[in-house]
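Hey,
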Amino acid sequence: MRLMSRSRILSIALFAPLGAVHAQTELSVFNTTGRAAATTFVTDYQAIGINPANLGWTWRHTDKQVAVGVAEGSYSLYSDALTRDDMRDRVLDANFRFTTDQKEEAARIFTNAGAIADVNVMLVGAAFTTPNAGGFAFQIRDHARISSRFGPVAAELAFEGFRSDYFDLLVLATGDTVTNYATMSEDSLALVVLGIASEPQLLGRVLDGSNIELTWYREYNFSYGRHLIRNEAVELYGGIGLKHLVGIGIVDIRAEDGELTGFTSLSEDFQLDYTTGSRVPGSRLSAGSLAFPRPTGRGFGMDIGLGLIVKDVWKLGVAVTNLGSIKWTGNVFKATDGSLVDLATDGLDNYNFVEGLDDFATNSGFLEWSSGGERVVPLPTNTRLGWVVCSVRPWKWD
């Protein structure tokens, strides 16, 4: 289908986050990303999470009332430290492993820089629309994000581990302790098992300006939209979306103004031992755990929206999405600040920060963790405003 050639569209939109700074992330419908006026023209189940009022419109295919979608999704990667070629050749290549020189390079380029990866997968979506009763839609969608940013020392620790200049002494597998120096041979480095700082500093200062965050949750959303006023001059539509949220994993570690805080709540499907930092050999998230993950948090969310059409020329859409929160209660651990005296890891092997979580989120790495507690984390509430001017109704197609 194509838009009628006579139509001339001017669209303007505003998309503004209202949620807390450290709220869980929100991801847009994959095939409307970048469209400023998506608030005014997405329909059927793709209106979920953008503007549920659009479910009440006259459908673009007037002889159809049902839409069904399966396995729609998208992903995005961004880093102010890596080029597009780096993303393709090093991040997306599962077999890539750092050399010693590449570890040093990674620590240098990630100083005061970071990376973000988003994955958004709709497992199933469906919508049913009627002229008078309005439109009904249901969707199951997974939202996942991992982001990180490293201060100068944190970058060295993350990628070089005990080889960082922070540690002035190195313990070898032979039991000998030697001075950490820049020209140490590869054979000597292979014997290192521990780095020791003779003048340890508080982690809040060592990691200052750094954060690492991971969020993964599943959304079960039921939305409804219907006309409130409909005549030849004006049409007003309203909609609401209610969603049950299942938290699968969250990690939130940050050092700001010399103070460190850390919180994790990861599903047992990650198979991560907080005490030893070990995982079941060869453990991976299986197809079964991806389809039916064991939750560690639950919550509730809501979307509300309005749509206004004036004389079939002007259309205004406004929506507030992701009102709500998730309460994380399962497998909860919190980190406390303390001095970084020693470290028994040689840093990340590649840019897979998920595989490297045990260096941050267990007692085998930088931080000391204790179990207990819970946390309520708000969703990233957004307000959306868009309008369209068109010589024909822009949501009707030929």
